[in-house]
Design goal:
The structure holds two protein chains of two kinds.
Chain A: E1 5-14, E2 17-27, E3 30-35, H1 42-49, E4 57-62, E5 65-66, E6 77-80, H2 92-102, H3 108-118, H4 134-146, E7 152-156, H5 164-179, E8 183-188, H6 191-197, E9 200-205, E10 208-214, H7 215-224, E11 227-233, H8 236-244, E12 249-255, E13 258-263, H9 266-279, E14 284-289, H10 294-303
Helix pairs in contact in A: 2-3, 2-4, 3-4
Chain B: H1 2-15, H2 17-39, H3 45-73, H4 75-80, H5 84-87, H6 93-123, H7 131-157, H8 161-179, H9 188-198, H10 213-236
Classes of the chains: A alpha/beta, B mainly alpha.
């Protein structure tokens, strides 16, 4: 299958700050997620793909053409930016029709109504976008971006501000676009959004590609990494003694009213802790992960 | 396509609160002229009108209106992030620039011509020669185009185009070019008055700049073309967040 998006040795820096560092990857039709914490370089990557940033080094190609200084590319590319801004004096319908007219579509009215229908904003299409909620603005932005049925759709944090029902609806719509053979690339810093939508994932940390491939395989990597937990119980010392004897536990530290436990086998640990506590007659009052932030997961992936 | 962007921009400019303030600014010379008409007896109405046109309208109303409108026409969109809805389209960038300068020109010229005609007809009675009013009405239309092109292009390059424009209008044009006649060829105000000067016989009534008609028109055209070319080139390589 031909890659719709290709980045070759791409870097981008702002002054002395490196935002994207020597990245090479290719994206084929279907849905791909761009996952990373804030500041990982996701927006910079999307801006370069969208032709709104010149790569400091390397080349970005969309459908075989360079994305820089190539206005013709937008015939086949739709862009949904992260910023909420819309033309607030226009109604939703006027906003999407404007997009259709600027694309030179033969029937802008029909195209606009079709796109609005896809994002399920028909009821609000005659209201000014300035009065839309954040989630509605996201959807009308998507409608404007897909009005010309682009082959490639680039979305920067598209689910921000959308409620759970809207998210599911938007995800269904993007899946349908992917099923038609289009390329949908979206960025997110939320694992659950990736899990629901991104079959393929590119994980970015500090401007570098940390991992790529099937989401489930990456998720497994994330789950199998060493974990640390804080535990409080009715007998911390007794529980520490019981845990240290377990082969899945790599370290135990008693620290006042709680103990810190490190394990290399998350699955086994989850099964063994309640069993060991019950056998020792100890009641656990607190069990909390200590390093579940996305950043710590990314740090682990990068270090591998 | 130019028409679509032009209509969108006109819609945005007209709806802004600042346009209402500019309308009030344009009303000031009309009100002052009315005051003159009904209070100053035996005064030289043509001389008053000439002074009002060249010293107040060409010096203040025209550049200030063009500055506010010109920097908002595209600069506002770059600022709030909506410019991507224009630029992420298969459109030649020159079309966007033509539409933006065109919209700024239409709004600026409309407001300033209103000030010129209102002020002129308020100050001059039926017996007075109204040639000076029509001369300035034509001249400010040309001046509006040059200012609009300059300020639209400035707003693509600079986030603080309004401040830079204010410095140009109130330091360069109002002070430097007034006292150093050699730099008048770098003043849009001088071109505007130069054009008005050639179209009226009442030259003595206006603060003429000494620029002849040919020089005024040619220099004005140079400003428009240079600003247009610069704006197109900047927009062709436009990067998000790269304005100084």
């Amino acid at each position: 299958m031909t890659a719709a998006i290709e980045l070759t040795d791409v870097s981008h820096w702002y002054g002395n700050v490196v935002a994207v560092n020597d990245v090479t990857f290719a994206i084929e039709p279907g849905i791909t997620g761009l996952l990373g914490p804030n500041g990982a370089g996701k927006s910079t990557l999307l801006h370069m793909m969208g032709g709104f940033l010149r790569p400091s080094a390397g080349e970005v190609r969309i459908l075989g053409e360079s994305s820089w200084r190539n206005a013709g590319m937008y015939r086949h590319v739709g862009i949904v930016q992260e910023r909420e801004a819309v033309y607030s004096s226009l109604t939703g319908y006027e906003f999407v029709r404007l997009s259709a007219r600027l694309h030179g579509l033969s029937d802008p009215r029909a195209a606009a109504l079709r796109a609005i229908d896809l994002v399920e904003l028909g009821d609000a299409k005659d209201r000014r976008t300035g009065g839309y909620s954040k989630g509605m603005k996201q959807r009308i932005k998507i409608a404007a971006a897909i009005v010309h049925a682009p082959q490639v759709l680039l979305l920067d944090e598209p689910f921000n501000g959308a409620d759970p029902r809207q998210r599911l609806q938007m995800m269904d719509m993007l899946r349908a676009m992917a099923a038609e053979g289009r390329t949908v690339l979206f960025s997110s810093h939320i694992l659950e959004e990736m899990e629901r939508l991104g079959d393929r994932v590119l994980v970015f940390v500090a401007g570098r590609l940390a991992a790529s491939g099937d989401f489930r395989a990456i998720r497994r990597l994330m789950t199998d990494r060493p974990h640390s937990f804080a535990i409080a119980s009715t007998d911390n010392r007794g529980l520490a003694r019981a845990l240290i004897g377990d082969e899945g536990v790599t370290g135990v530290q008693v620290d006042g009213e709680r103990i810190t436990v490190r394990t290399a086998d998350f699955q086994r640990f989850a099964m063994q802790v309640p069993r060991l506590a019950r056998d020792a007659g100890i009641t656990i009052t607190l069990l909390a992960p200590m390093d579940e932030s996305l950043e710590s997961v990314f740090d682990y992936l990068v270090s591998r | 396509m130019i028409g679509v962007i032009l209509a969108l921009t006109l819609n945005q400019l007209v709806r802004q609160r600042r346009t209402l303030l500019l309308l009030l600014l344009a009303a000031i010379p009309v009100l002052v002229s009315l005051l003159f008409r009904f209070t100053a007896e035996n005064a030289d109405a043509e001389s008053f009108t000439g002074g009002m046109m060249s010293n107040f309208i060409a010096n203040l109303v025209l550049p200030l209106t063009a500055l506010v409108v010109g920097t908002a026409a595209l600069g506002q969109e770059i600022e709030d992030g909506t410019t991507i809805y224009l630029l992420a389209k298969p459109l030649a960038r020159w079309k966007v620039v033509v539409a933006k300068i065109g919209a700024a020109w239409i709004v600026t010229a409309s407001l300033v011509v209103l000030a010129v005609l209102g002020s002129g007809f308020a100050a001059l009675s039926g017996d007075d020669d109204r040639q000076i009013v029509f001369a300035f009405a034509v001249a400010v239309v040309f001046g509006s185009l040059a200012y609009a092109a300059l300020f639209v292009s400035l707003s693509i390059r600079f986030g603080r185009a309004l401040i830079i424009g204010l410095a140009y209008v109130f330091i360069w044009e109002a002070v430097v070019s007034q006292f150093i006649s050699g730099v008048r060829f770098l003043s849009i105000r001088a071109y505007t008055i130069g054009i008005a000067d050639t179209m009226t016989e009442a030259s003595g009534a206006i603060d003429a700049t000494g620029l002849g008609p040919t020089a005024s028109v040619v220099l004005l055209a140079v400003v428009v073309v240079a600003a247009f070319v610069y704006a197109v080139r900047r927009l062709q390589t436009f990067e998000l967040g790269d304005r100084a």
